[in-house]
Amino acid sequence: MMSRKVLNLRLGYLARRWASTDPLNIQNEKLQAYLESLRQEYYAVRVNAAGNSKSYARLAQLEGVVSALEQRRVLERQITSAKDMEAEKDEDMRELMREENEVYVDLLGKQDQALLQELLTLSDDEMYPALIFGLNAGAGGQEAMLFAQELYEMYTGFFEHMGWEWEEFASEITDIGGLRHASLMVSGEDAFRWLRHEAGVHRVQRVPATEKSGRMHTSTASITVIPRPADIHVHIAEKDLKIETKRASGAGGQHVNTTDSAVRIVHLPTGLAVEAQSERSQLKNRELAMKRLRSRLVQQQLESAEASKMATKKAQQGSLNRNEKIRTYNFVQDRITDHRIQGGTMHNLDGFLKGGDQLCGLIEKLQLEHRKERLKELLDTWEPPKEAIKEN
């Protein structure tokens, strides 16, 4: 029978061997070197940070990782000290040190997880103040448009759940209450980091209410998420606008229907046209129409830049099928399956479509996987600096 000492030696060897091959294990040598470089950078930046906003911003980014790393090193020293004390001749003291060491080892494991979380957050550098969120009905006719409307309600509910600001600036509704397309401006803390995972094709499988034979139909809708940088601006010259006024149509009361309060603006260089008639005042409708036009022009500019970026990626990476479905909503089985991660299947479709905690939990899983892949890519290309930064 294998002795306890030999077993511990073998387990220790296997743990070190596994740690050396797993790039995201804190014991990994390259990850250790990377963490040390971040710690040294932190102290070097801190010396010269006075009055420098960029330095303060970088310190804020690094602080969580460095603090967690320093706490980890304190625990390592305590473990070493407890092990040294196990050599004491007094048996009671040795037993006490062994128990203390077990506590420190448990704390070290938890601290490693905390450190990894800080590191994963640091590696995610995609930060934008706002984004344009687009929904488009896909294959499936009226059923696809009804599904797109359900997604619209789910996501706007999610925006409210997260406390983000959002505004619709373009949409087209069908006679039966479906949605052909909609564009929304969304802003809020980390909104882009969360919503980027929703971009792609969403598939629905269900029996439509009008289907007499009980056949299940498959329809799709697509989501686009385009980041809006803080420095993007759109200039609109008055000479480039054609402004028309007319009487508003539809519900709204006698005043709305009998005065020329509705406004239609055409941007002549692009041909984009927007309308506004929800306000009683023509002036307010004009302001609203101009706001929508500005958002449409920003969207057009960002989509053009995004298309160029994707074309470059495609040229570098070869064929890339962007229309591959990312998620299936199966009403017959009351099931949602995200096809990008393990354990991406859940139930309770009605709850999920409310855009609350269930959707939040799924996106958190996607966020974690994304950050792990991002950190692996970063470590794969990272090289230790030739000269270590001296700590002051």
UniProtKB/TrEMBL annotation:
PROSITE patterns referenced in this protein's UniProt entry, alphabetically: RF_PROK_I
Domain annotation Prokaryotic-type class I peptide chain release factors: ranges: 247-263
Record protein name field: Prokaryotic-type class I peptide chain release factors domain-containing protein
Record's keyword annotation contains Protein biosynthesis: yes
Keyword Transmembrane helix: no
Gene: Dere\GG23822
UniProt record similarity statement: Belongs to the prokaryotic/mitochondrial release factor family.
Superkingdom of origin: Eukaryota
Any one annotated GO CC term: cytoplasm
Record key words, sorted: Methylation, Protein biosynthesis
One MF term in the entry's GO annotations: translation release factor activity
